[in-house]
Amino acid sequence: RGGACARGGGGKMASTAAGKQRIPKVAKVKNKAPAEVQITAEQLLREAKERELELLPPPPQQKITDVEELNDYKLRKRKTFEDNIRKNRTVISNWIKYAQWEESLKEIQRARSIYERALDVDYRNVTLWLKYAEMEMKNRQVNHARNIWDRAITTLPRVNQFWYKYTYMEEMLGNVAGSRQVFERWMEWQPEEQAWHSYINFELRYKEVDRARSIYERYILFRALALLVLVHPDVKNWIKYARFEEKHSYFAHARKVYERAVEFFGEEHMDEHLYVAFAKFEENQKEFERVRVIYKYALDRIPKQDAQNLFKNYTIFEKKFGDRRGIEDIIVSKRRFQYEEEVKANPHNYDAWFDYLRLVESDTGAETVREVYERAIANVPPIQEKRHWKRYIYLWINYALYEELEAKASPFSDAERTRQVYQACLELLPHKKFTFAKMWLLYAQFEIRQKNLPLARRALGTSIGKCPKNKLFKGYIELELQLREFDRCRKLYEKFLEFAPENCTSWIKFAELETILGDIDRARAIYELAIGQPRLDMPEVLWKSYIDFEIEQEEYEKTRSLYRRLLQRTQHVKVWISLAQFELSAGQQERLPRCRQVYEEANKAMRSCEEKEERVMLLESWRSFEEEFGTQATKERIDKLMPEKIKKRRKLQAEDGSDAGWEEYYDYIFPEDTANQPNLKLLAMAKLWKKQQQESEAAAVDPDKDIDESQT
Length: 712
Known about the structure:
The chain is mainly alpha-helical. Helices cover 71% and strands 3% of the residues. The protein has a two-stranded antiparallel ribbon with strand order 1-2. Helix 23 (437-449) packs parallel to helix 25. The chain is elongated. The termini are far apart.
């Protein structure tokens, strides 16, 4: 009983201890504030790695000593592998590990069984087929390996790795025919480019050049059919084929391949790489003329932006084997392509057309130049405003001059073509809105050079009738003057002055013409009509010309009368000075008193003038006259009339009316102006007061001090 009690008491204590273990004490956290030093997960991982807490000790090595232990080990490993496979059949790595383990035990039949089971699960897995075939090859099971490769390429014919491995195995076994047969089966599937080249290289390794050529032919034919549906076909396969022929010294075959490629691609899919390779092949064969023909043919047809490499190689070729003319031709051709791109991008860029035309005129024939000119003048400005036509009209002018001076046709043909150019241009211009006098005058001058005066006059008459302009009248009059047709000149001047009566230059030229012809009265009448016009653009020039005309005729009284009439219209200081100089140069006995009298009148008239600078100019001219021709009394008198120059300030205002500060300016005070006398007296009194102030300040200073200090 005691033992039972003891056992009973022990059971009670055990249950009590178990109850205590079931309810662990939870520590109460009183301070829930974050610790001062924080630790991150990265630090925890780093410390764990440093202390090697996660490293497990390697498993102990077992040594199998008898067959039973080995069988037991195999059973356990196979059970483990089978369990893994049952858990997830689709994980192929488990199957491969299982098969490789069986292979390591030399259990080839079991390994085959595992691979076959794996293929039943996923026959599309490339790695599985490769491992299976490698196992058979490693164990020298050649027929089994062939069987596996056959099954692989039949099941997955688009996996190139199977074909490469299969052909390589057959070639390593020395079975060239078998390898060729595999390649043929592969080519039936029309593989990628590298597969064909592998087949070609295989044949070349065994010196089968004819077979390699036939493979190239089949491949090119296949690619040609395939590329018919492509937008941008590739030429590198043709180039490789040609280089293959060249490498084996079949130069005629290589040239034929290049020619077939050029013919196949045509002008729609031209590629500069094909022509560069073709040219380099001919260059290696020393066929330099063929090279030039190839480059020029390609440059004329390939778009400019795609021919940069072609240009570069052509330039290098000409530098190596060409002369100076050939190098210049390629440079000119490159510049032509650049200009073509510019005018294609912006047809109304007339500066680009000028540069392009200058280039083709210096290097090409007349027909090419005419074609470019026709393309250029076809780009008419879209807006009928003269500023948009100013550059365009020079295309027509240059075209006409080229046809007249530089075209290499017969003289009659040149003149007729030039006339057609001028007439087409004049018909194109919108004369009701604007015209170009230059074009009419150039046409008239051209007809005169052709000794066709009626057509020249007709053209200028038409221009004046359609669109009269000052320049047209002047050009027509100048033409008639050169022909000494003075009656026609008079009629033209009359028409000109009816069109523009305010043009002073026309009146002067008309009067000068009559003067040259000796009709003085007619010239004077023209001047009188001119100064009587209500509106003139340069009246001072007209009056000066009239006065000079009367002086040349030595009509001094009429000249004085003209000056007086002019002074009635304007009191400008230059008119007075000019009158005074005229009186001085008249050459009469009373010239000095007359000149002095003019200055006196001018001085009186200029007193009321607001522009004091003009009055000062008059007095300075008068003083110069007196210094040269006057007496001492007259010199003193003019010195008394000279003004005093003083500096003044005036207030400025901005455009919005706000204060803009002060401005200093110079003013002139004339002694004769009685209105300014009180101001002068006040100024003198102010100066006297300032002087007295300075003297009183000097007297108040201590006399014992130094003079410099007192002044300071």
